[in-house]
Amino acid sequence: MSVKLAFGNVKKSIGSFLVYFVTLALGVAMFYAFNALQDQSLFKYFEEAYAQRLSILFDTLGGLNKFIAFIFGLIILYATSYLLRKRKKEFGLYMILGMDKLKISTILVLETFFIGLFSLAVGIVLGIGLSQLINIFLGHLFVADISRLTLSISVHAIVQTLINFGIIYLVAMVFSVILMNRAKLIDLLKASQQNEKSWWQKPWIGTLLFIFGLAILTWSYYIATHLMDVIIDLQWGPKMILYSIFGGIIGTYFTFMGIAAFIPVILPKFKGFYYRKLHSFGIRQFSTQLAKSVFSLATICLLQFFAIGILVASFNFKNGIEERGLANVPFDFQLSVTQAADENVEGQPALIEKNADAAIARNQAYFKGMKKKEVQYEYYIDPKIDNTIELLGISVEKGLIAPPIIINQTQYNQMAPYYHLAKADVKPGEYAFLMRFNGFSDKAIEDKLMDLPKIKVANQTFTPSQTKFIDGTIQTSGYDTFVILNDADLKQLPLQLAGKVISTLYNEKGKRHEKELAKNWEKMLSKKELHLNYSAESQYSAKTSLASDSLMVTVVGMYLGIFFLIAAIGILALKSLVDFEKHQQNYRILRQLGASEQMIQKSLFNQVAIFFILPLVGALFHMIFGLKFTKDYMMIGGGFELSLQQTGWVIGFVIMINAIYLMITYLMNRMAVKEI
What we know:
The protein is α/β, with parallel strands linked by helices. 66% of the residues lie in helices and 9% in strands. The strands form two sheets. Strands 3, 4, 5, 6, 7 and 8 form a six-stranded mixed beta sheet that branches. It has a four-stranded antiparallel beta sheet with strand order 2-9-1-10.
């Protein structure tokens, strides 16, 4: 009897359960799809290409699973409390007719079981399809051979999904029973009459909150759009960024509270608009709903902002690696040779040229028949210069602590075109300064780089050949600073030979064997008697390393971004339904007063639409300034630019999900209005 009644309730009230069911099914689908990645054919291809590095990705996803399952558990508990609140009168009638609380609790448990079972079944089916879409998307994004994609079902992901969501549903069942046993008959019957008032609706309080919120947001936006200026201060810069984030959160809540207080005061003053059709009714309805949902709406606004930001940053990180990451690795292979450290020698020991030449010869023999071109240079140091700060005459103790590398003009100009750098014209008695600069430095250092001073190398004074430094590097690995001298000057200075670098470009045969060449290069330099240190970077290793990092950021970003989005909009839809439940009798009064169904439905749609649009507009407004922050932050991290096309796709996706949930919520509310 209980099973039949519970199943009949779910079937009869499918409209009431729709948002709940859709959110659960999407959560299950997303959970399955991302947990199934490691069993998909495309990721097996990635594992072959990136070796064990993908284990970090799957470990990260495993950790995120616990967080996401916990948050979805909270959403399900919230939805459960909504459904109980919606049906309090129904349960009150059951009790009047003689049904005890144990029987009602059994019905609730069975209803939760049926909804959970249906959502799991539908969600896993959707998840299988979603996992294929994710594979196709990532395959195109990472230029993989998508012809190898095959439809596969991950038993591991199904088991993980069933375990996690099974526990969540079990907790929801227990929660339903506890709520039901605590309920009193009088509370159940009077549930729709209970109401609450919000203290911030007083106009003067709302005005103060609104002004204060806007002031905090303005300051936070200023910090976000002036990141380069703020981050220069190494002591206060990171703290200011953290304070601005907290300020943005607090300012959002205060601004929403101010809006909730303003709407019922300001809009009635526009009488031509306010008294037209059902506008006055809709505004009063929405004002009441907004006042009771202000914290929820502000939280949803921030969650959507985080979702957009995470998705935009993760996709643009991938683009940045493609466009800029490999620009610093123009050679197929580059080997740097330095002398091994000696405990009896203080500082960097001088390179024994005979040993270095032997290592270079081994390198040339290793790539014989595989190379198209080789480029070499050697570099020196002045043992009397401990660091670049000392060289530039800067009285700070941060950054540029390594001694500068000194090379001649000819060898620099030979390397510069490969790194897309301008050639240097350094006359006798002059120098040029080369450094990779990403916008993060002490202000004193930045000022010196923009207006280079005279320097002393081996007790000889040199003036800058150009005022500003050259931004870049001619060495794939490391962040060394280079002093470029005229060939004649360098030759006559008493400097210490510090290292030799040989860079190789492959021919077609070398390209075909780049993987083996990158993996086996150490074998040619294994003789310990040379007492040398080797630093090597291959374009193949760089590509696989950057691609695996990019893949991890993209997948984790998609997982978190889509999760935040579904969680935010799912809660928004449920909140709209909860609030509407308290006021649906007002629509019956409208109908009795002669309002047409078309007018009622339009007023209802406007109310639901504004409820969804308000947090979305807030999130997009935050994102205007967030994009500037993200762009500057990415420039600091690696010189990556934002792609407006990728950003547009993300925003379009967010708007589409909002529109889908908006229409579902509207249709459910409209169905409830028709039943009144």
